[in-house]
Amino acid sequence: MMIVMKSTATEDEIQAVIERIESCGARAHPSRGEEVTVIGAVGDREHVARLGLQGAPGVEQVVPILKPYKLSSRQLKGDERTVIEIEGRRIGGEHFSLIAGPCTVESRDQVLTAARLVAAGGASLFRGGAYKPRSSPYSFQGLGQEGLRLLAEAKAETGLPIVTELMDARDVEAVVEVADVIQLGARNMQNYALLAEAGRTGIPVLLKRGLSATLEELLMAAEYILKEGNERVILCERGIRTFETATRFTLDIMAVPVLKQLSHLPVVVDPSHAAGRRDLVLPLSLAAAGAGADGIIVEVHHDPDAAICDGPQAVPADEFAAYVDQVTRVAEVVGKQLSAV
Ligand code: PEP
Ligand code: MN
Fold first, then answer.
1. What average pLDDT does range 223-231 have in this prediction?
2. C-alpha distance from residue 136 to each of 190, 246, 316 (Å)
3. Residues, CB-to-ion distance under 5 Å, ligand 2
4. Is the pLDDT of residue 230 over 90?
């Protein structure tokens, strides 16, 4: 259920509603908008209905949320969109973010070079995997804790906030020490225990769509994070499995406007993993920006031929500034500004 408070509701009235929701074993998720506060009540619908909140002081309306996902649903926030701020960079609303960096952290020299170059090129955040989900157990699995340490060094030098993947709940403490955004990979989208663990950190989470997941399944996965009281979830379309074999995956560009109709959460696009090929990264990025994406997460490497992982899809670092320029021009056409500091 969704309890829409009156624009004149006082803080005491809002608190009273929250307490009543929690008294019946449900959880209250207040969302304080510029005009009104809306309180999502998640729990047994019958119990919440029996509280008789309709007509309570300060309450404008009690409305059921019809979708199976509640906290991620657009309905919860009306026209308002979630904007996530990460050390001055904003994702969502009128802001466009570029999250760029190598697939994986390979060495100190590699990660610092990449970070310097993407910072100079105008990136908003820096990406790099210390723990890598590889299709083969014989492939390089990432530098682990040493990789996290190198990411921290890259941040210290460039100031770029760090986006890095959490694959295993046992690594959560080490990852939260360095990550400004926790990435949950496509292969873990339905690892519900991991979703909840990431939710409990309170750190923004970039949630990738599973390889064969529907948009509803993606939003239900987001719900696991939000339900832990973590409101800062970024959805990511990264290509899905289809019958097409010409490219690594098929970028579902429609996911961008559809997710934005269904949810208030920001939506970013990963053209690199969708395409698997560098030559497609720019056209897919332009399409994503034109479709209204709130940002792009793109792989960049200073020497793609020497990359340990995903070199064929990496944008060469010396081409990154020109890439940013073209993508932001399209983002501006749909009313978004690049968010960097
Ligand atoms: C990645 O971003 O490095 C990655 C492995 O992505 P995905 O989970 O989308 O395959
Ligand atoms: Mn990769």
1. 95
2. 20, 21, 25
3. 103, 310
4. yes
